[in-house]
């Protein structure tokens, strides 16, 4: 696994469904950890091997089942600037007492790189996401690698960035980089599941960066 020790420029990373402190996830997702302590240590180590202090990590929900104090300790141990896209297990009463998130939102759209690539982030998979017919990328969690996409989405620009799914093809329990997402999406195609017609990808000057 490449190390973040010598990184100079901030990079962007994506991950979801870490389920810190959730004993049942070991059984539900066949995770190989001995117990919660082992899972916590491996998830932190694999994250910190990749992520630099100035990097931005987008966590697409279901981060922790621990108490707010325990979750704060984990966030402080993890490198990078962390943004949470809230999942169904990220409860407001706990988030209000947790420290370490740069930002907490329900969903998020990014425009990245010189071509302002649109990336749609949501905890849950979206059947028809914004500008999917024009090359936008949709990253989601929630499904732990078990989602059987509809036929029209099997080659679409969509990816489950839940840690269980990422581990299957990355071979570790850390996040996936934006560069790796682009590599995967280069073999995928724009598609439409509704009345929108597939068109050329958006250009950088069509919409302002945000």
Structural key phrases:
210 residues, alpha/beta, Purple Acid Phosphatase, chain A, domain 2, four-stranded mixed beta sheet, 9 strands, globular
Shape: globular
Assign the CATH superfamily. Answer: Metallo-dependent phosphatases
Main sheet makeup: 5 strands, mixed
The overall average pLDDT, rounded, is 93
Structural class: alpha/beta
Q: At the third CATH level, what is the topology name? A: Purple Acid Phosphatase, chain A, domain 2
Beta-strand percentage range = 15-25%
Low-confidence stretches: none
- In the sheet with the most strands, the strands line up as 4-3-2-1-9
Span from first to last CA? 32 Å
Order of helices and strands: EHHEHEHEEEEEHEH
Query: According to CATH, what is the class?
Result: Alpha Beta
**What Rg is obtained from the alpha carbons, in whole angstroms?**
17 Å
DSSP helix fraction: 10-25%
Q: How many strand units?
A: 9
Per CATH, the architecture is 4-Layer Sandwich
Number of helices: 6
Whole-number total of structural domains: 1
Chart the SSEs and their pairings.
Elements: E1 12-15, H1 24-28, H2 36-50, E2 56-59, H3 68-77, E3 81-85, H4 92-95, E4 103-105, E5 107-112, E6 117-122, E7 137-140, E8 158-160, H5 163-170, E9 176-177, H6 178-185
Parallel strand pairs: 1-2, 2-3, 3-4, 6-7, 7-8
Antiparallel strand pairs: 1-9, 5-6
């Amino acid at each position: 696994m490449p190390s973040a020790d010598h990184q100079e420029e901030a990079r962007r990373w994506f991950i979801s469904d870490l389920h810190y402190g959730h004993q049942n996830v070991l059984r539900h997702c066949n995770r190989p950890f001995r117990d919660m302590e082992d899972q916590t240590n491996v998830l932190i180590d694999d994250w910190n091997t990749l992520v630099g202090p100035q990097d931005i990590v987008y966590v697409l929900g279901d981060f922790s089942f621990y108490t707010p104090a325990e979750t704060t300790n984990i966030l402080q141990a993890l490198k990078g600037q962390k943004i949470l896209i809230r999942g169904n297990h990220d409860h407001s009463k706990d988030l209000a007492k947790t420290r370490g998130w740069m930002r907490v939102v329900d969903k998020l759209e990014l425009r990245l790189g010189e071509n302002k690539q649109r990336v749609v982030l949501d905890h849950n998979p979206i059947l028809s996401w914004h500008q999917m017919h024009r090359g936008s990328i949709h990253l989601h969690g929630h499904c732990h690698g078990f989602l059987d996409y509809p036929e029209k989405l099997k080659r679409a620009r969509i990816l489950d960035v839940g840690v269980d799914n990422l581990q299957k093809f990355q071979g570790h329990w850390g996040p996936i980089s934006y560069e790796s997402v682009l590599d995967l999406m280069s073999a995928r195609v724009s598609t439409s599941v509704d009345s929108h017609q597939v068109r050329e990808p958006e250009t950088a000057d069509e919409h302002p960066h945000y």
